[in-house]
Amino acid sequence: MIFLPILFVIVIILLSGFRIVPQNYEGLIETLGKYTRKAQAGLVYIAPFFQRVRKVSLALQPLEINKYSIITKDNAEITTSLTLNYQVTDSFKYFYNNTDSIESMVQLIRGHLRDIIGRMELNEALGSTSKINTQLAAAIGDLTDVYGIRVIRVNVDELLPSAEIQRAMDKQLTADREKTATIAKAEGEARHIELTTKAKNEALVKTAKAEAEAVRLQADAENYRITKLQAALAQAGDNYFKDQSISSFNHLADGQNNLVVTSKQDITDLSAIPVAKKLWDQADN
């Protein structure tokens, strides 16, 4: 009966040596504080009191590096923050080769980021986030292997200039916008004057062309009238002109005026009347 409790305790102690390593974890088994072997995910048995299991996650993990200041090539202060995803590739190096592999990785990334941005001027750095990401990923590619970590992705989320620089940039931006607006307004007014002048000139040209066309048409009509009149006069005979002269003389004679207008030929003919009368009187005597 005395051995039953002892046996029960022994069984309990032996059963307490079973451990479970979760999926995407790797177990580091230590014997009396010294690394012995690795254990994959699943059920693992260790010697109670003499051994222990340290579980290390192999899953992809995100990390955010808080804002910190960096000085650019032109001595401008900017604040940056970035996010990254990393994965433990060697649990032994991760746990035993460094007291804090995550902090060492962060310091490494910060150092390379300072070096990259420190070789750029402010305006270049603010507009080169993609370029900085590429250079940073290439710089830390294999260096974190000593910590048993692989950086899968690193991304600079923001680059912010200091408050003083931001105010100066805002003023410069406002001045540039005002300058652009002034130039645009001047160009608009110049374009308006150009179009107005062009329209007026076109109107003057059209008016001049219309007046010239009217004069030409009037001249053509007058020429046509004269041509027709000349043609009609050319077809008329001498008797027509004599009839017209007699008719005109009759109208003048019917008037109250004593002045009579006649042609030279008619005056010659009329002068024969007194001569004929004198001859007639002599004949009677």
Structural summary, described in words:
By secondary structure, the chain is an alpha+beta fold. Among the domains are: 47 residues, no CATH class; 101 residues, Tetrahydropterin Synthase, Chain A, CATH 3.30.479.30; 31 residues. Helices cover 57% and strands 22% of the residues. The chain contains 9 helices and 8 strands. The chain has a 3-stranded antiparallel β-sheet. A hairpin with a 2-residue loop joins strand 2 and strand 3.
What labels describe this entry?
single chain; 285 residues; alpha+beta; Tetrahydropterin Synthase, Chain A; 3-stranded antiparallel sheet; 9 helices; 8 strands; rod-shaped
Explain the layout of strands and helices:
Layout: H1 3-15, E1 18-21, E2 25-31, E3 34-39, E4 42-45, E5 51-57, E6 61-71, E7 77-88, H2 91-96, H3 101-118, H4 122-126, H5 129-139, E8 149-161, H6 163-235, H7 238-253, H8 264-270, H9 272-284
Helix pairs in contact: 3-5
Instruction: Kindly state the number of beta strands.
Output: 8
Determine and state the CATH class of the domain at 61-161.
Alpha Beta
Share of helical residues: 55-70%
CATH superfamily of the domain at 61-161: Band 7 domain
State Rg.
61 Å
Show unreliable segments. Answer: 270-280
Q: Can you count the helices?
A: 9
Spell the H/E element sequence: HEEEEEEEHHHHEHHHH
The strands making up the biggest β-sheet line up spatially as 3-2-5
Alpha-carbon distance between the termini?
Answer: 218 Å
| CATH architectural arrangement of the domain at 61-161 | 2-Layer Sandwich
Structural class by SSE content: alpha+beta
Overall pLDDT level: 78
- Our estimate of the beta-strand percent is 15-25%
The biggest sheet amounts to:
3 strands, antiparallel
**Overall geometric form:** rod-shaped
